[in-house]
Known about the structure:
Domain Tail specific protease: 285-481
Number of domains: 3
Distance between the termini: 34 Å
Number of strands: 24
Structural class: alpha+beta
CATH class of the largest domain: Alpha Beta
Helix content: 25-40%
Shape: globular
CATH superfamily of the largest domain: 2-enoyl-CoA Hydratase, Chain A, domain 1
Largest sheet: 8 strands, antiparallel
Radius of gyration: 23 Å
Amino acid sequence: MPTSVEFRIQFEVAALSLRGARCSPPNMTCSIKPIAVFLLPVLAACTPTSTSSEMAQPWRSAGPIHPIETDQGETNPAIRGVWQSRGYGRLLRIDEAGVAKFEIGETCYRPPISGEALSAMDSVSYRYFRILPGGDSAIFQLLRGDTNVVFDRLDTLPEGCTEDPVATPRAVAEAFLDAFDRHYAFFDRRLPDHSTRAARVRAAIRPDMSQAELWDALAGYMQSLSDSHTKLIGTVGGERRRVQDGQGTTLPRMRAANGGETAWLVGLIDTTMQKLGDSALHTGNDRIVWGLIDGRIGYIQVFQMGGFTDRQDFGSEAWAAAEIEEFDRIMDEAMITFADAEVESVILDLSNNRGGWDKIAKAIPARFTDEPYVGFTTVTRGSGLSPFPHMIEPASGPRFSGPVYLLTSDVTVSGGELATLALRQNPRVVHAGGVTRGSFSTPLAKRLPNGWLLELSNEVFAAPDGSVYEESGIAPQVPLAVYPADAPVEGHWRAVETLVTMIDTH
């Protein structure tokens, strides 16, 4: 393990094998059982019963998945043409030369290409497609199994779409406001509403205003939005700037403390490794710590949903395969160790999980179930589609089928909250700790006409019963102070010890 001086951990997603397993009692299993009877009504509710239902659930009738471009950089002839998304404000022009992306709303423009990605979501593009019956619509995805974004084929590029966007203060502000008006999904939870915020921006816009003044006007729109997935990133006067609200209570406090966030994280991991003793492993490119508590209780802490390898090709097929393989390797080893120790309970610590790749967020609960179930649903504002049910399929590798104690806090966000939401559907999981952050949506990244990047929340994640926890966060069943202000390092392990006591008394 690195020393406190050497330790450096990155919690931003970079830009973000099936193995033989031996299982033993009491709570390990390697076989996938049939769907439980109690799940049949849930799955039946997702079954289309009419043509209109099929149209609202196009993923059920879509053809096989294909890459948009070959390894040689050639586009698939079947997908060439002009395509407009439902609900994302995207327009793609695909020809022999490649894929050109346009932002479309009140205006249509091809955003300026700086050659530099401003965020993880800004660095990725659609890589795969599935043609829908008739060929006039298709599902586009960033990665295999990713969000189903439906595009419709157009005869030609709409009139007014330009390769050279107008970047006056008024044009930039209106593109910014139009994106929020069309796509932001949570003004009912994060007041004031769009019109109030927009009026404030428009009152500040002048033709001769500086870039710094324009930035301040747009930043004012986002004031008190309290959404960590909504941000503005750009360069003003040679200086990189970023506006992002909704960081909760713990993170701002620790970043302002002596030593900052790094010292706090180092202290947390040093303490955890010490408490786990010889069984402790700090692995997965510093993203996972696991071991045994007193040789009898399994412990796994996951800091991020991805970034387990050193690969820099974020979003590529090779990156995805390497990430899953390394995650599976770590989880296989942990589960086999727990089986050999005959642990009866596992503490799953997501109290410092900063999110990441949704596939990992679903792979975690997959290690703690023997039955497939719906973990959560997603729907995008303006898409016209039904909520998409995300199934949690039992992992093919070794799994744990005993009691699980889940620990969260207000640091737990994004993919950490998706895993929490899915785990809460498992009756063997006890959720303890603090309320999660309340920021679920995958950020919709949109380049403004002047090259600044806007990210906003346009997807609604919900529990299978329809409950939405955006802004409010998911409240635990057993409230515990995880990072108290007077002991943000020691308090964490005290919370873990409280769970140990709960396990011992049950």
